């Protein structure tokens, strides 16, 4: 990736960077989204602008360049302006920032010129939380922030502008805006956010969602209406995870939320079961898939959809490998040796038709295991592939248009009938996206208003990714 | 290195005490690295302390004392990492409303005490077993009996439905677990197709299919659990560690998980790794036999019901008990527990003929259900959570919703 960036930044053959005059001030060192796409098509042998867009979005998600006006880390093929990230902040430097660094940064922001750099709601909340968490060290953090602010003041105004935006983008990557209220609460509960992000044991739906939000395009401020239990715990708060799980699934629990159309045991009507058995998944069911990769893998229809999506991306071998190994573990012991051989030939042997990508350590171990085949021969490889799917393919699936369509297709039908799902959708989100720092609590729309907005959204081309995740995010049931 | 002849004895004590060595194993299987890391660096490694040189003079009593000391130290360490109480955090959630749960179906047909039941994945069929050796498969929705098998032994204490819905497994005093394939032909003699899978040296207390029809996990009065290959009857893995009869087990609900929890008469609930056969976590806070264990739907916690009239919730990541569900007025043991789909409700069947419904997070009882005329012996929530079934010594099963 960095080679491509270097080429992009090249003075002569790279993307033209210019200073744009806008209103009263000059915007230094920017280039537009369409510039990037054009350059990529020309220089990287990409034919399809969609592919270029996709590649660009991925690079933006990692923080190599960013839009200057809002926190959304994606690429848009139009006139919106972007800036390159300074190499100091590149991910390859393997600098995983600590919460203390974030605290210093936020503190420094508050000391600077308020009008220009006011903290967004989510940033203010995290600052408050960090202040509580670091109560003992706060003086020290404050001093550091002061020192940094002093240095900044000495710099040239334009240079400062650039650096500020780059720093902000860096933190957007490492401390993204969490749009889903549930995840926000979770995030507040943990001291060590990076630990949560990197630990492999978190495979359950609740924490899974947190993981995926990182690569999500951050959206506008989350709805502060939501009750947040910011508990005083400083360790990873386990009771909160139980709470969040329960809350997330409350609408699916027939004892707490009467099922739609009816509970078969009470009404003697088996429509509910017939609906579940049909190939058409209900909106509720589709929504559940977004809770975590386990939900998708558990539901046969979800698996099918996921597989279809991956096939369209030509990366279905990962999921097929995972499914094959699961199947292997379910077979009688007699069949194990032949199946192990079959899986090896299909996925891992040199020159395999559906070759998967595993790290060398797992590969060596698997090679050893295959010589003495047992049910757990592919355990390491499977774990690696699972993590890969969870962090990469799964999040793309949830953001994909196929998934969003499934989610929205039933929504319209749902809204006509059910007033109980109040949607908290930001009205402003329908217009051109702006830096939403000053936005306060979202308005509650009535169902007809929402219906209109769905139609508007489906027609405008450039909104899908962000706003649909907003819709998706805010349609999670309001806290009871 | 220990050369003392007390080696083996000492090792047994170590095995029984859940030492930070097992915490290290738990770390591998994926617990919070933060918590365990700080624990192991804070104090001199207790396991090391215990493996000091043993003198031939050390008697049973001194070793026992050392074991008790280590246990106390462990509790201390666990308490240090304890942050917030579940009930404290749960105060901010809204309380549950009134529940109206009634018996929607009553299944009559067993001639004697119903001991165990299980749901089929199709959400309407159940299999139940009783003291007179009968195993019946019902369509609970229509209350029709679909199959009936008579086992050669009495007290069939365990039964399970295969995930495909094509077979049932059962066992009890015959020390075996047998699998019967279910055929659509009602006239066919099912008993003829029986396949003996598990062989224990004492009664079979619980059995469960893993994710497939091809493997069965069993627990037995001989103190062990075992994983068997159904087709060949081969023992795939055995699990040793309980000091007394193992009464119950439950598999973790995750797609990728490889663990299960078991509870026994030694008052301990152990969490096992199916692949290695090791006990990765152990909890000993009950005051009497643990009759039933069930995972919380997310797989991060489990509940247990015991003869000491309490149900308790254990959090696997925090590695401790986080809630006790008890009342002064409840003095009879809980024989069976299960969670509702979201994990907010815990249903407990008790020996005083009632079913208590607990709010898992807040810790209070939300409802008490009457209807059975003898002790409730088994209780399971249906796979989609729309209802739960309870079986009792009054020869009937009831579906509640």
UniProtKB/TrEMBL annotation, chain A:
PANTHER family: LP21163P, REGULATOR OF G-PROTEIN SIGNALING 7. The keyword Membrane applies. Gene3D superfamilies: 1.10.1240.60, Regulator of G-protein Signalling 4, domain 2, Winged helix-like DNA-binding domain superfamily/Winged helix DNA-binding domain. It is a peripheral membrane protein. Residues 11-86 form the DEP domain. GO terms for molecular function: GTPase activator activity. It is found in: Cell membrane; Cytoplasm, Cytosol; Membrane. Its main location: membrane. Keywords: Cell membrane, Cytoplasm, Membrane, Signal transduction inhibitor. GO terms for cellular component: cytosol; neuron projection; plasma membrane. It comes from the Eukaryota. This is Regulator of G protein signaling 7b. Pfam families: DEP, G-gamma, RGS, RGS_DHEX. InterPro entries: DEP_dom (IPR000591), G-protein_gamma-like_dom (IPR015898), GGL_sf (IPR036284), RGS (IPR016137), RGS6/7/9/11 (IPR047016), RGS6/7/9/11_DHEX_sf (IPR047017), RGS_DHEX (IPR040759), RGS_sf (IPR036305). The gene is RGS7. GO terms for biological process: G protein-coupled receptor signaling pathway; intracellular signal transduction; negative regulation of signal transduction; regulation of G protein-coupled receptor signaling pathway. It comes from Scleropages formosus. Residues 292-407 form the RGS domain. SMART domains: DEP, G_gamma, GGL, RGS.
Automatic annotation (TrEMBL), chain B:
CDD domains: WD40. Belongs to the WD repeat G protein beta family. PANTHER family: GUANINE NUCLEOTIDE-BINDING PROTEIN BETA G PROTEIN BETA. It comes from Scleropages formosus. Keywords: Repeat, Transducer, WD repeat. GO terms for biological process: signal transduction. SMART domains: WD40. It comes from the Eukaryota. The gene is GNB5. WD repeats lie at residues 107-148, 197-238, 239-282, 283-324, 336-368, 369-401. Residues 29-58 are annotated as: Disordered. This is Guanine nucleotide binding protein (G protein), beta 5a. May interact with RGS9; this interaction stabilizes both proteins and increases RGS9 GTPase-activating protein (GAP) activity, hence accelerating the deactivation of D(2) dopamine receptor-mediated signaling. Gene3D superfamilies: YVTN repeat-like/Quinoprotein amine dehydrogenase (2.130.10.10). InterPro entries: G-protein_beta_1-5, WD40/YVTN_repeat-like_dom_sf, WD40_G-protein_beta-like, WD40_PAC1, WD40_repeat_CS, WD40_repeat_dom_sf, WD40_rpt.
């Amino acid at each position: 990736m960095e080679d491509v960036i270097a080429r992009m930044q090249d003075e002569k053959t790279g993307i033209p960077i210019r200073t744009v005059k806008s209103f009263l001030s000059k915007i230094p060192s920017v280039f537009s989204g369409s510039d990037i796409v054009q350059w990529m098509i020309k220089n990287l042998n990409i034919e399809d602008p969609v592919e270029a867009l996709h590649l660009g979005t991925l690079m933006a998600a990692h923080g190599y360049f960013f839009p200057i006006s809002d926190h959304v880390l994606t690429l848009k093929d139009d006139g919106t302006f972007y800036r390159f990230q300074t190499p100091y902040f590149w991910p390859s430097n393997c600098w995983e920032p600590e919460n203390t660094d974030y605290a210093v940064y936020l503190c420094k922001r508050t000391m600077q010129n308020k009008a220009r750099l006011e903290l967004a709601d989510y940033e203010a909340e995290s600052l408050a939380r960090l202040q509580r968490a670091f109560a003992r060290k706060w003086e020290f953090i404050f001093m550091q922030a002061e020192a940094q602010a002093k240095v900044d003041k000495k710099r040239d105004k334009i240079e400062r502008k650039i650096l500020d935006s780059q720093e902000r983008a860096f933190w957007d990557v490492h401390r993204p805006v969490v749009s889903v209220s549930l995840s926000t609460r979770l995030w507040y509960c943990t001291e060590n956010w990076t630990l949560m992000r990197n630990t492999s044991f978190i495979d359950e739906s609740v924490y899974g969602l947190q993981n995926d939000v990182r690569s999500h395009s951050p959206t506008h401020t989350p709805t502060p209406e939501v009750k947040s239990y910011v508990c005083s715990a400083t360790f990873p708060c386990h009771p909160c995870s139980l709470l969040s799980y329960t809350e997330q699934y409350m609408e699916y629990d027939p004892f707490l939320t009467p099922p739609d159309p009816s509970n078969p045991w009470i009404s003697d009507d088996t429509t509910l079961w017939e609906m579940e058995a049909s190939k058409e998944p209900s909106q509720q069911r589709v929504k559940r898939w977004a809770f975590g990769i386990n939900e998708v893998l558990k539901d046969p229809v979800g698996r099918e959809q996921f597989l279809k999506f991956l096939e369209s991306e030509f990366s279905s071998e990962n999921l097929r490998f995972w499914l094959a190994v699961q199947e292997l573990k379910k077979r009688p012991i007699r069949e194990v040796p032949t199946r192990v051989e079959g899986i090896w030939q299909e996925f891992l042997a040199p020159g395999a038709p559906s070759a998967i990508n595993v790290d060398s350590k797992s590969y060596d171990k698997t090679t050893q295991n295959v010589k003495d085949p047992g049910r757990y021969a592919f355990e390491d490889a499977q774990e690696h592939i699972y993590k890969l799917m969870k962090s990469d393919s799964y999040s793309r699936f949830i953001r994909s248009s196929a998934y969003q369509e499934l989610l929205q297709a039933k929504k319209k039908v749902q809204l006509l009938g059910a007033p109980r799902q109040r949607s908290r959708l930001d009205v402003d989100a329908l217009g051109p996206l702006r830096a939403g720092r000053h936005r306060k609590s979202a308005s509650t729309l009535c169902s007809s208003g929402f219906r209109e907005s769905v139609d508007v959204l489906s027609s405008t081309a450039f909104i899908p990714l962000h706003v649909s995740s907003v819709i998706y995010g805010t349609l999670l049931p309001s806290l009871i | 290195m220990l050369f003392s002849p007390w080696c083996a004895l000492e090792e047994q004590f170590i095995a029984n005490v859940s030492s930070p060595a097992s915490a290290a194993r738990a770390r591998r299987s994926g617990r919070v690295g933060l918590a365990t890391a700080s624990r192991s660096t804070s104090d001199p490694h207790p396991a090391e302390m215990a493996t000091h040189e043993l003198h031939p003079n050390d008697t049973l009593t001194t070793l026992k004392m050392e074991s008790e000391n280590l246990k106390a130290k462990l509790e201390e360490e666990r308490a240090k990492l304890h942050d917030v109480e579940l009930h404290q955090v749960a105060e901010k959630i809204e309380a549950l409303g009134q529940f109206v749960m009634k018996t929607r179906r009553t299944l009559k047909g067993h001639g004697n005490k119903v001991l165990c039941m299980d749901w089929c994945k199709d959400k309407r069929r159940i299999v139940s077993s009783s003291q007179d050796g009968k195993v019946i498969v019902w369509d609970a929705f229509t209350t029709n009996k679909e199959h009936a098998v008579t086992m050669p032994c009495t007290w069939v204490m365990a039964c399970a439905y295969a995930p495909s819905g094509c077979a049932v497994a059962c066992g009890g005093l015959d020390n075996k677990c047998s699998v019967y394939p279910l055929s659509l032909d009602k006239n066919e003699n099912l008993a003829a197709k029986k396949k003996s899978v598990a062989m224990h040296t004492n009664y079979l207390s619980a059995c469960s299919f893993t994710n497939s029809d091809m493997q069965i996990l069993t627990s037995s009065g001989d103190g062990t659990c075992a994983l068997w290959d159904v087709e060949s009857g081969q023992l795939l893995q055995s699990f040793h560690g309980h000091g007394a009869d193992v009464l119950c087990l439950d598999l973790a609900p995750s797609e990728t998980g490889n663990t299960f929890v078991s509870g026994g008469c030694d008052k301990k609930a152990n969490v096992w790794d199916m692949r290695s056969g090791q006990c990765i976590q152990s909890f000993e806070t009950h005051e009497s036999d643990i009759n039933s264990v069930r995972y919380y739907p997310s797989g991060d916690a489990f509940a247990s019901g015991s003869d000491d009239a309490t149900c308790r919730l254990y959090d696997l990541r925090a590695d401790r008990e986080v809630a006790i569900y008890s009342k002064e007025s409840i003095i009879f043991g809980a024989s069976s527990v299960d969670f509702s789909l979201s994990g907010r409700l815990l249903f407990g069947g008790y020996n005083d003929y009632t079913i208590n419904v607990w709010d898992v997070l807040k810790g209070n009882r939300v409802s008490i259900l009457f209807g059975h005329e003898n002790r409730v012996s088994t209780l399971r929530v249906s796979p989609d959570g729309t209802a739960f079934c309870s079986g009792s010594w009054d020869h009937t099963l009831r579906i509640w919703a």
